[in-house]
Design brief:
- The complex is a heterodimer of chains A (439) and B (1248).
- Chain A has 439 residues and is α/β, with parallel strands linked by helices.
- Chain A is 29% helix and 15% strand.
- With 1248 residues, chain B is of the alpha+beta class.
- The longest helix of chain B has 27 residues, at 479-505.
- Classes of the chains: A alpha/beta (439), B alpha+beta (1248).
């Protein structure tokens, strides 16, 4: 079989290297490379990624515009806007705790994509940063970071999800070792690593002692079988991770009750748990804010769903502000990047029931902490927060910014078997946030 | 009361007189007429929501029409057909003095009060270049006072300054109108322009009185220009002017119609008065018939003549006979090949039985989801309403219904309950008929828990209605009875489905018999390699081939080798070369003329002539320089740099002289001993039926000392297991992976397919031959969304779905990777982009082009200067690719493929035949290699789905098995049985064949395998004896959404039946609390419900979640808890002593008896309090059922209550079932701990 692959010998390579600059370079990736500029790097160690399932309306939160009137169907914001710590940057009135802290926050107002019909598809886009191809199952952001950096401390899982498991959050071609542990209830540890209901320490130790006998027989029965031995080692590891040492991290009662109250309800407790998890060495945490108790529909505020949207915003505001203050107090804010994403935004117009549909042409994602050069807001939309006026940020660009902040080269390749897959789809980090490049 | 049989009343015949439509005079000939059959004589341009091929007026209601007469549905919002005016003075232009008639058949779907919607008109199209008020003529429908009236409209020339501003509009409207929507009506108008009194309108052939109600009577001429004729809309497509409903036979005449002509047009048979359908019962059973595609789910089909509506005349869906009036689902529907098909909805289901009723007041209860009526004799005793209601998610969670009698099972969610009564003077046997409409255009054909109950005068409880003549006790409608009955009915339906499917599939048997004769002949003409004659390793052909290879190894070459260096090379160096180099520089492939397969080839180097290594001198070795280079243009391998450790290992090896010991892992040559009976037993069960044997099965096999003496004990067990129907449950999951079955419970996205799992399962259940399975898959038949092989053809969110299907087919059946060829030629294989798209074209049955989004610009992936791109794009986007078989070289010799197919013009069938033809031995070899690998742990060829690089370890044996498969009707069970009967299969699993290179793969022993995820779950269920009870996998258990947006995958009972639970919306209300507990285990062990790509080898690396989920997961806690009335509880209660109890647990979970130290330890734990473990009856506190929770579905999932309910369900799932109160809690917990530690043994998850 004759195939054209590399026919270069060492001599050929050396001979042509000098002429390399003359070769046509068509891809964008090549151009970046040829600029020979280092990509911006920051030294973030952890990410807490808050997911606002349903689609946060940027015009009602981080990109407020002139007020509209849902009854008269006059397009515009639902709420008043207020000033923030950054001159010229406003947010909606219900983000009042975050407003004075916006100097440590950047609302990226010009994120955009084209998948707005189906939540699952948009969720996939905003977790993988990729278009579905049918030939590669792309990993989620959390899985890429888990894969590239591992856990921050020995004995901690790299990636924890506080929310429902689904494929868009998964490791794709990177495989199970880059997957998440998940939990849906902050009162308990992750599924599979916290003891079942009613298993006391006594019972656990009785169980483990009998298991020791069983394991020893299994080792004999399959003597010398490395696969069985590896599995047995995983048994050991799992017993240790589900033991008291790691599971202490889930004991939120250890926190001062004042602080717990400031964090607020279940979503706030999830944020508090996230802080404890990063202290314990978890690298990437996704926290889902879509518990549906406040308005049923969560952030997917069609029709009457919008009537209680302000409760969601208020809850996000106090949990996020408390998290930032808490991290700051523990000198962890600079090494922790907080990210807020959502599957898409919402249009300025109101639907028949006074709520809002979906919008992908421009929406806001938020970055906070992580020692970035924050500027309150980045990118500009038109008077309806509908079209991008300046500084568009593609989903790959937004992902590249997060990777760069962690010190991961966003142009680096991962490998799906033999197939090279760049970490982002030609994303370019937002230079301004790194004090790198000037505009 | 005198009960008559129904047939006594059915004697009345309706005489339908067929009238000829007279076209006596010229004026009756239209200048244009559109009947919306297949092709219009006058071409029309469609716009917007038009649906063609909808039933039009048809006999028997309209005897003048053809039985297949079709119409078009107009969806409103500007949906229309348009027709350009031919020009000035055209026959569509009308001036003063001209006569016009307009006529149409219409069926209105919706029309608002005061709305005027266009049927047909000329002008007023909203064309910017024309006047807005250029209406030459129009016929419209106008609803006033609830009556839909016929309406004629035109505009005359507007006079400047005339008041009112619309005085130039002239509108005539009939005084009366249609009141019954959704029926076919005929409307017509005639008018002589300039003569206001000439106006005449008709509805259903009857002349209508009307008024010029706008603009008044006028003699003015209409405006005329060259604007278009529109059907169904006007005014630029304004919704308010758009017709919503069906139109047929719309015509324009020049001339006046007369009353007689119009009246003759409308010939509608009168329906019979409501009466019970004439249908026979079969004594002692409930007969169920199915009539598909009835007109509406909201109204009863109207019977026009009795004999023709006998619903049992549906030959495609045979009658089903059952024992009581309880119908949890429709039987499955199969196409002519026995492939799962969707019901044509709505389905009119009729259940009939003769029933004996006692004297006095009988109450009848119907629970049905859709429109129903219950006939008892001639009387409708109970009716229920049609399905309906909003599914927008914002509905409230209804309070739980109160059953009519306390203690009764409550009515299922989304099902109506109605009760009626009938007083009888004496005991009577009469005919009872339930008619019900299941599904609808926007509803799935799932009846819910459909039932008829009866409460007799002497009973205080409703029981299921049962046929007369059956000696059966009443079946009270309680949870216990209904759940139990449904399980029995499900079994009966499964068998009924088997019979129907197999009968239909037999239509293809003759064809396949010919195919298999052909294959046999092929094998006779192309004989397989001879089985080696040496029988020192047994008489089985497999063992002879295996032994033959081992015996040919001259292990004396090992004698003078340094065993440590040899070990270092085999374990350290060789795996690195195999992993990173051999793919491109192997024996079959020599990139740059260079092989990394021997010391000699390395020293010789490649085409460049430079040695790759200089033994002893790492610094002058190009190989080391290139693997160590940081320059991506130079580095090898080009993909990823080797680790430092790997580079170090290779460097040391070169330094030490680069010795390449030609052997031979002597361990790999040692033929492993045969396993004992308990090991064989567990292994054989897992490999055939997917679960370990039950305690009884294990004891039977192990204890039967008499049988033990029989040499064929194991062979008998193999035969028995191969005929076990659980075979299908075990093997289906393998094919789900290999064929990328990827259904989603809601709107398909992320490369979702349909749930063709049901096709696969039934194929395996029927043991259809592998070539037939592949063919029927490729033909993509039956239901796309509900389980046919057509579901394979879907790939949502994908710009070239058939290309992705081609990738799957090639890897599954040909061991060929086309993944890369989706966007460019494969860099590591010889396949080209054109190969893949040729296959896609064959599947599409026409030329295809590569979408722009499926191509890459050259050099995209290679950002490195200095290295030639691995990526070549040889097929331009937009370039047509024809349906041609691209892999002619796979055929051993050219054959006339069209002789093998039933329709040689069908490229899809040609594709299937090219893949499965005996000349394509690759197919047979890939199949046997897959079966072999699943049983032995490594293939002859690896990877099993990519044959490009790997050589076969045993080419003769592979060939021999492939021939044997072909000669035996491509029967997978034949090959599996053959392998399992070999000594090789029955040896200790200490082989390392998978990691050995082909030449050193001997199969002296099989490899160790871990249980698959499904086996872990299924075996745990089987061992504990606790049935799997999880949520129905559907977001819409009310079946109020069509399969296009939501499906139900039923309530899983085995691991393979799960799917991704896809809660991308992150809403508790959309969670499946119990199913999640199972998918947690499945996912930890390598299952994925989202199979976007084909997968042959799952990840088997151990991870912490695997033991974690068994130790701590919710599912295992259900399986190991000694819950109320569970098998484990009964086992504990009935145990003779601790020994027997521990034995039972070991046999159930590990298929072996405990050894002495295990027995002692567990016995000691259970000993304390064993005798007092059972509480005295006075101490037993009966278990109280938990408070029932409200019901959640898509329709109400946005309510806060829905979230609360699901969170409570999650809590309950975590808590598990209540403990058995008969047992002393302290002892019970110790017993649970024993079970826990047995199931957590690593032994549980390994095939012994």
């Amino acid at each position: 079989m004759n195939r054209n692959r590399s026919h270069w010998s060492r001599r050929d390579v050396l001979a042509t290297a000098a002429g390399a600059a003359l070769l046509p370079l068509t891809s964008r990736g090549s151009e970046i490379e040829s600029e020979a500029k280092p990509f911006p790097r920051a030294k973030v160690e952890h990410v807490i990624s808050i997911w606002l399932g349903g689609g946060m309306g940027q015009i009602d939160t981080f990109d407020p515009k002139r007020k509209g009137d849902p009854k008269a169907k006059v397009a515009g914001s639902y709420y008043d806007a207020i000033d923030t710590a950054v001159p010229g940057v406003q947010v909606c009135q219900h983000l009042k705790k975050l407003a004075p802290m916006m100097d440590r926050v950047t609302a990226v107002r010009t994120v955009n994509h084209d998948v707005i019909d189906e939540h699952a598809a948009a969720t996939n886009r905003m977790h993988t940063g990729r278009v579905v191809t049918g030939t590669v199952v792309y990993p989620s952001l959390g899985s890429v970071i888990a894969n590239q950096l591992g856990a921050a401390q020995e004995g901690a899982p790299p990636y924890v999800l506080i929310g429902y498991p689904n494929v868009t959050r998964g490791p794709g071609f990177l495989g199970a070792s880059s997957g998440y542990l998940y939990l849906t209830d902050t009162g308990r540890g992750p599924s599979g690593l916290s003891h079942p209901q009613g298993i006391t320490a006594d019972r656990q130790s009785r169980r483990e002692s009998m298991l020791t006998t069983m394991r020893s027989f299994a080792r004999d029965r399959f003597a010398g079988d490395s696969k069985v031995n590896d599995y047995d080692a995983a048994v050991e590891q799992s017993l240790s991770l589900s033991g008291p040492d790691f599971n202490r991290v889930f004991n939120l009662d250890d926190e001062p009750s004042d602080l717990r109250n400031q964090y607020g309800g279940e979503f706030g407790q999830r944020c508090l748990l996230s802080r404890r998890l990063i202290e314990r060495g978890v690298r990437f945490i996704e926290v889902s804010h879509n518990l549906n108790f406040l308005n049923g529909t969560g952030w997917d505020v069609h029709n009457a769903g919008i009537e209680k949207q302000h409760d969601l915003i208020t809850e996000l505001d106090s949990a996020m502000a408390t998290l930032m203050i808490d991290l700051e107090a523990k000198s962890m804010l600079d090494k922790t990047l907080i990210v807020i994403t959502s599957e898409f935004g919402r249009p300025p117009e109101f639907d028949g029931g006074g709520g809002r549909g979906h919008q992908g042409s421009a929406f806001s994602c938020v970055l906070a902490g992580g020692g970035l050069n924050h500027c309150g807001a980045y990118g500009e939309t038109d008077e309806w927060s509908k079209k991008i006026v300046s500084d568009p940020v593609s989903v790959p660009d937004f992902f590249a910014t997060i990777h760069a902040s962690m010190g991961i080269d966003p142009a680096k390749y991962l490998y799906d078997g033999d197939r090279p897959v760049p970490i982002t789809d030609n994303g370019i980090p937002i230079a301004k946030l790194f004090g790198w490049g000037t505009d | 009361m005198n009960m008559r049989t129904l047939f006594a009343a059915a004697g009345l015949a309706i005489c339908i007189v067929s009238m000829n439509v007279s076209l006596a005079d010229d004026r009756s000939s239209p200048i244009a007429r559109w009947d919306f059959g297949k092709e219009e004589t006058t071409p029309l341009n469609p716009h917007g929501a038009l649906v063609r091929d909808q039933p039009g007026p048809r006999p028997p209601e309209f005897p003048d029409f053809n039985a297949s007469n079709n119409s078009v549905k107009f969806g409103g919002r500007g949906a229309r057909f348009t027709f350009a005016d031919p020009g000035d003075e055209s026959e569509f232009d009308f001036k003063n003095g001209d006569e016009i008639s307009l006529e149409a058949w219409v069926k209105v779907d919706t029309i608002g009060e005061g709305e005027s919607v266009y049927l047909i008109g000329k002008g007023r199209t909203g064309d910017d270049e024309k006047a807005k008020d250029n209406q030459n003529w129009a016929m419209r429908l106008r609803k006033i006072g609830g009556k839909v009236r016929v309406n004629f409209l035109f505009a005359s020339k507007r006079v400047q300054g005339q008041q009112p501003a619309d005085a130039h509009w002239h509108r005539w409207t009939s005084n009366e109108g249609m009141v019954d929507m959704k029926r076919w009506h005929n409307v017509a108008v005639s008018y002589r322009f300039g003569d206001p009194d000439s106006i005449r309108g008709w509805i259903d052939g009857e002349v209508q009185v009307g008024n010029w109600d706008m603009g008044g009577k006028t003699t003015e001429a209409p405006v005329v220009d060259n604007d278009a004729v529109w059907i169904g809309s006007s005014m630029g497509g304004s919704d308010g002017a758009s017709f919503r409903g069906w139109i047929d036979s719309v015509a324009i005449y020049r001339g006046m119609l007369d009353d007689k002509t119009v009246s003759s047009r409308f010939n509608r048979a009168e329906p019979l008065p409501e009466s019970a359908p004439p249908i026979n019962a079969r004594p002692g059973t409930v007969r169920v018939t199915f009539e598909e595609r009835v007109a509406s789910h909201q109204v009863w089909p109207e019977y026009y003549s009795k004999p023709e509506v006998n619903p049992s005349l549906n030959p495609d869906a045979p009658d089903w006979f059952t024992s009581q009036f309880l119908f949890p689902r429709l039987p499955y529907r199969y196409d002519a090949w026995g492939i799962r098909e969707s019901w044509g909805t709505p389905v009119l289901m009729t259940a009939v039985a003769d029933v004996t009723l006692p004297a006095g007041k009988n109450q009848f209860m119907v629970r049905a989801r859709g429109l129903s009526r219950l006939w008892v004799g001639d009387n409708v005793v109970v009716r229920t309403k049609a399905i309906g209601g909003s599914t927008d998610g914002h509905q409230p969670v209804d309070p739980l219904p109160v059953p009519p009698v306390p203690g009764m099972r409550i009515v299922a969610y989304g099902v109506n309950e109605q009760i009626g009564e009938l007083v009888l003077k004496e005991i009577t046997t009469t005919r009872v008929i339930l008619e019900t409409i299941v599904g609808g255009a926007a509803y799935r054909a799932e009846p819910g828990e459909l039932m008829v109950g009866i409460k007799t005068p002497t009973s205080d409880m409703f029981s299921l209605l049962q046929p007369a003549g059956v000696d059966q006790s009443p079946l009270p409608i309680t949870d216990e009875v209904i759940v139990d009955r449904i399980a029995q009915i499900e079994q009966a339906l499964l068998q009924f489905g088997d019979r129907v499917r197999q009968a239909k599939a037999s239509s293809q048997d003759e064809y396949w018999a010919r195919r298999h004769q052909f294959a046999e002949q092929w094998v006779a003409d192309h004989p397989a390699p001879l089985v080696p004659s040496n029988d020192s390793a047994g008489k089985h052909p497999i063992d002879r081939f295996v032994y033959d290879k081992i015996s040919r190894v001259d292990s004396s070459t090992n004698a003078d080798r340094d065993p440590i260096a040899s070990r270092n090379f085999q374990d350290g160096v060789l795996p690195i070369l195999q992993k990173h180099c051999i793919r491109c520089h192997g024996d079959k492939d020599e990139e740059g003329g260079f092989k990394v397969t021997s010391r000699e080839s390395l020293v010789a180097g490649g085409d460049s002539g430079e040695p790759a290594i200089k033994p002893g001198d790492p610094h002058s070795s190009v190989l080391l320089a290139r693997i160590g280079s940081d320059d991506e243009g130079e580095r090898m391998p080009p993909s990823a740099k080797l680790t430092d450790k790997e580079i170090e290992t290779l460097t040391q090896w070169v330094s030490a002289g680069a010795n390449w010991p030609t052997t031979i892992d002597t361990e790999a040559l040692v033929i492993a001993p045969l396993v004992d009976d308990s090991t064989f037993l567990r292994r054989a069960y897992l490999d055939t039926v997917g679960v370990a044997p039950s305690e009884t099965e294990a004891r039977q096999f192990l204890d039967d000392k008499r049988a033990d003496k029989r040499a064929d004990k194991r062979a008998l067990l193999i035969d028995q297991l191969l005929s076990d129907s659980r075979w299908a449950d075990h093997w289906v999951s393998y094919w789900q992976d290999v064929l990328a079955e990827n259904p989603n419970l809601l709107k398909p996205s992320l490369s979702n397919t349909g749930p063709f799992r049901w096709f696969l399962y039934e194929t395996l259940r029927d043991n259809r031959p592998l070539d037939r399975m592949a063919t029927e898959l490729i033909m993509m038949r039956g239901s796309e969304r509900e389980g046919g092989s057509a579901g394979f053809g879907m790939a949502a969110d994908n710009d070239a779905p058939m290309a992705t299907r081609g990738i799957v087919l090639a890897s599954a059946f040909l061991g060929t990777q086309l993944q890369c060829a989706r966007c460019h030629d494969s860099p590591y294989q010889s396949t080209k982009q054109r190969d893949l798209f040729s296959i896609a074209a064959m599947m599409t049955r026409s030329d295809v082009t590569v979408p722009v989004t499926s191509s890459v610009s050259p050099g995209f992936f290679e950002k490195n200067a200095g290295r030639e791109s691995l990526i070549k794009v040889t097929l331009k986007p937009g370039e047509p690719v024809t349906p041609t078989w691209p892999f002619a070289s796979f055929h051993k010799e050219p054959i006339a493929i069209s002789d093998l197919v039933q329709d040689s013009s069908d490229s899809r069938e040609l594709l299937a035949a090219n893949i499965t033809a005996p000349a394509n031995e690759r197919f047979a070899m890939v199949m046997v290699n897959r079966l072999w690998k699943r049983l032995i742990g490594a293939g002859f060829v690896e990877p099993a789905d990519d044959w490009e690089t790997g050589l076969a370890s045993h080419p003769e044996l592979l060939q021999w098995l492939a021939s044997d498969l072909m000669a035996n009707r491509y029967d997978a069970k034949h090959i599996v049985g053959l392998i399992m009967n070999s000594q090789l299969y029955q040896r200790q699993a200490v082989g390392k064949n998978l990691s050995a290179e082909p030449s050193q793969r001997y199969f002296a022993a099989p490899d160790r395998r871990r249980l698959t995820a499904e086996q872990v779950v299924d075996s745990m269920i089987a061992a504990s004896g606790k049935p799997l009870i999880v949520d129905e996998l559907s977001f819409d258990p009310e079946a109020k959404r069509p399969p296009k947006t939501m499906i139900s995958l039923g309530s899983p009972t085995r691991g393979w039946m799960f799917a991704t639970l896809s809660n991308e919306r992150d809403r508790p209300s959309l969670a499946f609390p119990r199913a999640t507990a199972v998918t947690d285990v499945l996912e930890a062990f390598g299952w994925t419900g989202s199979r976007q790509n084909a997968l042959t080898d799952r990840e088997t690396e151990p991870n912490v979640l695997q033991p974690g989920t068994i130790a701590n997961g919710v599912f295992t806690s259900w399986m190991t808890s000694v819950s109320n009335e569970s098998e484990l509880a009964n086992l504990a209660v009935n145990a003779k002593n601790e020994d027997s109890l521990v034995e039972s647990i070991f046999l159930r979970f590990l298929s072996r008896l405990p050894n002495d130290s295990e027995a002692d330890e567990f016995k000691a734990v259970l000993d304390d309090g064993f005798d007092s473990r059972i509480r005295s009856p006075g101490e037993v506190i009966p278990v109280v059922d938990p408070t029932p929770l409200g019901r959640v579905s898509w329709s109400n999932h946005l309510s806060e209550e829905a979230n609360r309910i699901k969170i409570e369900m999650e809590r309950r799932a975590r808590d598990g079932d209540p403990a058995d109160p008969r047992l002393n809690p302290d002892w019970r917990m110790r017993f649970e701990d024993v079970v826990w530690s047995v199931v957590n043994s690593p032994e549980f998850v390994w095939v012994p």
